[in-house]
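Tutorial, part two.
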Amino acid sequence: MLNQEIIIHGTTSNGKVFRPSDWADRLCGILSSFNKEEQTYQEWVHPVVIDDIRCIKISPELEERNTAMFRFLMDFAADNDLRMMNYPQQEEAEETTDSVDNSAEEADEEETENAGGLREIMPNETASAFAALSVLRPTLNDINRFVTQVNTIQRAQGYRLLGVFEAGKTGAVAVCGFREVTDLLSGRHFRIDDLVVIPQYRQRGYAVQLLSEVRRIAQENGISQIHVDSHVGAERTIAHRVYFRFGFAIQSYHFVCNID
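Running the prediction step on this input gives:
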C-alpha cells in the first residue's frame, strides 16, 4: 500500500491544462457510485487547487479500503494523460518527472501508428466506455447504473458499442453506440445513438474510423442505411462536418414533446 497521499494533477504530460475547468469536482461526483456501506469517497478523495491548477488528492488508504474506486481513479489519470505525484512533495516530483514525461512523449510519437485499436466493447467490459460517454452525456454520473442499464436493457434492444483504445489505456478514448432498427419508413437500418471522442484525443480520425466500422458491419448484415440524430448549435459544427464528409444528408426534423 502507498504511504503518501497521491495527487492527480490537472495538467497533462505535455503541460496542457486539463478541461473542463471543473473536472475535479465532476469526477468526485461520479465517485459517489463507488460508496459502500457507510463509507463515502469524501473520506479519501478531495478536490484541491495547487498553483491555480485544479487537482485531486487521494488518501493512501483508498487502495485497500475501496480498490475499485482506486483503480478507477488511476485509470482515469492514465487514460487522460494526467500527471501523478506525491503530496506534499509535488514540486520535487515535477522536477524528477520531466525526463520521464519527455521519454513518454517520444514513445507516443513512435507508437502512434500502432497504438491500441478499434474493437467491439463486449458486455464484460461495458465500463470501459463510461469515461467517453460521460463527456457526451453529462448526466451520466454513476458507473454501476450505466453498466446495468446498457447490459440489461439497451443490449437487449440490439444496442452495441464500438471503442477505440490507445496503447496502455483501459478506457476507450472514442466510442460509438448503435443498434439495428426496423420501421415502416426505412425498413432495416442502423441508428447511431452515441458518437464521441474524448477531447484530448480528437483530430486523430477516430470518429471516421468508428463510422467506417459501423458501415462495414451494416454491409455485412445487408443493411443499406445508417441514421444519426445530432443536436443543432455552434458547438456541434465539427460533428456535422464529419457527418457530411462521411456521406450523411439531412432528411428530416426531429421533434420532441416533453410530457409533464
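Residues 89-115 have pLDDT under 50 and may be disordered. In part three we will examine how such features are distributed along the chain.
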